[in-house]
């Protein structure tokens, strides 16, 4: 008779936590089994010995065996064997590492509720009954139903995480369940709790993930979730994640494939607030000449919003050097962006020190600002529950319950309303739209985090930005808000072509997005759009940071949805860095596209702040920074550019933008109007030069002639009207 899987793994567990005498215990125990089980026992002994050696090294501490509960605060010290065995990472149902073909079920109601939909946190479409529903749901309501996962190799299973069905219309979840294990998918053993079959507590609602740890971690290839009871007014529906460590099979003559990782020696783990500060400090200590950490404000609960600046002259805006920013963690539970920016800080520092030409060029030619956590309060709430147990929404909002991505002023509708009321678009500002009055009031529902970021934008002349989110694989570009509050409608900006280029640059170089074989995250096929989409065409977002950046500042900004899993397990972070490293770098390089230059005063040679730069056929102007320098992002082509400023005569140039990845320099020199020069001279009490007197006299004569011409035209029109009136009266008489 085949020995019980749970008995065997109990022996394994004991052997893993003991010293060398543990191996002797295993030897003595296995002698009691019959010779028909010798092969399996030998495999088990070898697996135990391999797992005993599963001590994390410096490069694996926070990947393969990091704790599932982030509240344990991962550290660099070695994890003991017992913790290594108990704390295994997810197999990857949520992150899609587990393929659809590896998931089977006893039955299912229809394809849209098939076993492939039984993934933790998977989201359904708006309509029930389509191909993309929010769970696996059994066709039959009895205790013989099961959802099965094939791990493809011997795996030490340690736990199951269960969730109910995601649906607007239905309430379905499993309240209790059993776990069954097998090595061949034919013979199954139910996990035992002592002498009784273990009953695991499931869900009490549809969304809260519930962790069930196996009483004894068990090695097998297949695992089944066997629902026993379910919500009385619902049916058998669930979403799941499986926890397990790979156990190498000594009978396999081929070496196991290595776990996906990264060649970069970075700190791949989830960092809470204190750990994030510590890491940023360590980067500044390693690269003091190119880094600076500063704060832009505090969260509602008082946590500082830290920014890492990376530049060859940190702390100083340099004329001609564009300002770039990445913002992550607007939604606190979308944690991947936070870790990618922390990785990026380390990477830029290390590669700069190595002399990496690409990185050196970026650092010396660009002023880079990285805000890894815009919503630190939300992140701390999600981090406390852990990567798999935070669910889809815990930590999304600020501590006040505000969605920061809807908290910026809605400038779109202010602009569109003004355009409809005006006689022509040219009479309405298409840039630097001022803050609405309601938004500036003290009692306005504006989060302190939002106010801090707005103030930051107003202080720094940012040119390009990206806002890092999670939960999908797509890049969206403005406008995010639709006209007339349509739920979905393509709503392009005046720079739609360049925004599409920006989105394509990131999406096409992202290894996960660019994979033609990848599975849909939830229910929308963004691959049909080359993994980019207009924000409004996806879903309307009034008050988004992207739209505000474009309409209130010079900054072009897109949103990057980085992964299907909002809060990937730490074991996934090296692979996610590999997926995004090139994208993060190449996107930053786009800040050097288009034209740039300095707008100067002809007489003083000083830069003119707030000079307006208008590109023909682009109904979106920009303004020069405080030193008169400007950057206008454009695709290759020939452009007519007109620049003007208050008190100056306008100037026009034709500027050529080539295919090269650097901006074309297009400087402008403006001449003050005679009236402006006269005002400045009188203010200083100076003598009016003769050339200015002549120009003013010529200007007065020109105005006199123009006004006389208008008066004469008006008199002639009045005479005609009187003649017509007399002629009409004479005919009537």
TrEMBL record:
Any Gene Ontology CC annotation: extracellular space
Residues at the catalytic site: 561
Keywords for the protein's UniProt record, in alphabetical order: Carboxypeptidase, Disulfide bond, Glycoprotein, Hydrolase, Metal-binding, Metalloprotease, Protease, Secreted, Signal, Zinc
Biased composition (Polar residues): 59-68
Superkingdom in the source lineage: Eukaryota
Bias kind Basic residues: ranges: 720-733
Predominant localisation class: secreted
Signal sequence interval, chain numbering: 1-23
Subcellular location(s) of the protein: Secreted
Span of domain F5/8 type C: 86-245
Positions with biased composition (Basic and acidic residues): 69-79
GO-annotated molecular function: metallocarboxypeptidase activity; zinc ion binding
Residue intervals of the Peptidase M14 domain: 269-591
Gene3D superfamilies noted in UniProt: Carboxypeptidase-like, regulatory domain, Galactose-binding domain-like, Zn peptidases
Annotated region (Disordered), positions in chain: 59-84, 710-733
Cofactor(s) annotated in UniProt: Zn(2+)
GO biological process: proteolysis
PANTHER family (UniProt xref): CARBOXYPEPTIDASE X1-RELATED, PROTEASE M14 CARBOXYPEPTIDASE
Family membership noted in the UniProt record: Belongs to the peptidase M14 family.
Name of the molecule in the record: Probable carboxypeptidase X1 isoform X2
């Amino acid at each position: 008779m085949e020995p019980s899987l749970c008995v065997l793994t109990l022996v394994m567990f004991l052997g893993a936590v003991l010293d060398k005498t543990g191996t002797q215990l295993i030897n003595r125990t296995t002698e009691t089994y019959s010779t028909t089980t010798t092969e399996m026992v030998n495999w088990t002994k070898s697996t135990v010995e391999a797992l005993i050696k599963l001590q994390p090294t410096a490069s694996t501490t926070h990947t393969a065996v990091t704790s599932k509960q982030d509240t344990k605060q991962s550290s660099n010290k070695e994890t003991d064997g017992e913790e290594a065995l108990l704390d295994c990472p997810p197999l990857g149902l949520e992150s899609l590492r587990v393929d659809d073909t590896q998931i089977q079920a006893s039955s299912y109601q229809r394809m849209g509720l098939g076993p492939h939909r039984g993934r933790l946190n998977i989201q359904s479409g708006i309509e029930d009954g389509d191909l993309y529903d929010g769970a696996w749901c059994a066709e039959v309501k009895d205790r013989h139903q099961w959802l099965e996962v094939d791990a493809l190799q011997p795996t030490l299973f340690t736990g199951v995480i269960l969730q109910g069905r995601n649906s607007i219309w239905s309430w379905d979840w499993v309240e209790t369940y059993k776990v069954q294990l097998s090595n061949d998918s034919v013979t199954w053993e139910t996990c035992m709790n002592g002498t009784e079959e273990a009953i695991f507590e499931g869900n009490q609602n549809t969304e809260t993930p519930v962790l069930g740890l196996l009483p004894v971690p068990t090695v097998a290839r297949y695992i089944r979730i066997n629902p026993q009871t379910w919500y009385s007014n619902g049916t058998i529906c669930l979403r799941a994640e499986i926890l397990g460590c790979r156990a190498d099979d000594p009978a396999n003559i081929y070496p196991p494939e290595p776990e996906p990782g990264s060649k970069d020696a970075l700190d791949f783990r989830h960092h809470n607030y204190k750990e994030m500060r510590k890491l940023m400090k360590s980067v500044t200590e390693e690269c003091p000449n190119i880094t600076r950490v500063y704060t832009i404000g505090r969260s509602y609960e008082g946590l500082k919003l830290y920014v890492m600046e990376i530049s060859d002259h940190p702390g100083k805006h340099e004329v001609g050097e564009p300002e770039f920013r990445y913002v992550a963690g607007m939604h606190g539970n979308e944690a991947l962006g936070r870790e990618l920016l922390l990785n990026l800080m380390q990477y830029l520092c290390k590669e700069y020190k190595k002399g990496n030409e690409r990185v050196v060029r970026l650092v010396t030619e660009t002023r880079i600002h990285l805000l890894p956590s815009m919503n630190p309060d939300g992140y701390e709430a999600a981090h406390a529950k852990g990567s798999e147990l935070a669910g889809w929404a815990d930590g999304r909002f600020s501590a006040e319950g505000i969605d920061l991505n809807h908290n910026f002023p809605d400038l779109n509708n202010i602009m569109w309303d003004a355009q409809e009321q005006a006689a022509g678009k040219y009479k309405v500002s298409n840039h630097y739209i001022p803050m609405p009055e309601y938004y500036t009031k003290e009692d306005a529902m504006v989060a302190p985090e939002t106010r801090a970021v707005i103030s930051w934008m107003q202080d720094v002349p940012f040119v390009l930005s990206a806002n890092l989110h999670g939960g999908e694989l797509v890049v969206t570009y403005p406008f995010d808000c639709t006209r007339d509050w349509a739920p979905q409608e393509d709503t392009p900006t005046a720079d739609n072509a360049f925004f599409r280029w920006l989105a394509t640059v990131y999406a096409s170089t992202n290894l996960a997005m660019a994979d033609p074989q990848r599975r849909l995250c939830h229910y929308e096929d963004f691959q049909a759009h080359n993994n980019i989409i207009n924000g409004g065409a996806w879903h309307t977002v009034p008050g988004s940071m992207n739209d505000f950046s474009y309409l209130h500042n010079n900054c072009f900004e897109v949103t990057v949805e980085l992964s299907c899993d909002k809060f990937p397990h730490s074991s996934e972070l090296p692979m996610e860095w590999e997926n995004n490293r090139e994208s993060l770098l190449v996107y930053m390089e786009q800040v050097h596209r288009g034209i740039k230059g300095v707008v100067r005063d002809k007489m003083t040679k000083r830069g003119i702040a707030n000079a307006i730069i208008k590109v023909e056929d682009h109904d979106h102007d920009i303004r020069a920074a405080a030193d008169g320098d400007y950057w206008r992002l454009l695709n290759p082509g020939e452009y007519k550019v007109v620049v003007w400023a208050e008190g100056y005569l306008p100037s026009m140039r034709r500027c050529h933008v080539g295919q090269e990845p650097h901006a074309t320099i297009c400087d402008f020199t403006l001449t003050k109007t005679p009236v402006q020069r006269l005002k400045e001279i009188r203010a200083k009490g100076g003598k009016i030069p003769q050339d200015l007197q002549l120009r003013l006299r010529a200007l007065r004569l020109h105005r006199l002639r123009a006004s006389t011409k208008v008066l004469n035209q008006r008199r002639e029109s009045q005479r005609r009207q009187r003649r017509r009136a007399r002629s009409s009266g004479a005919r009537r008489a």
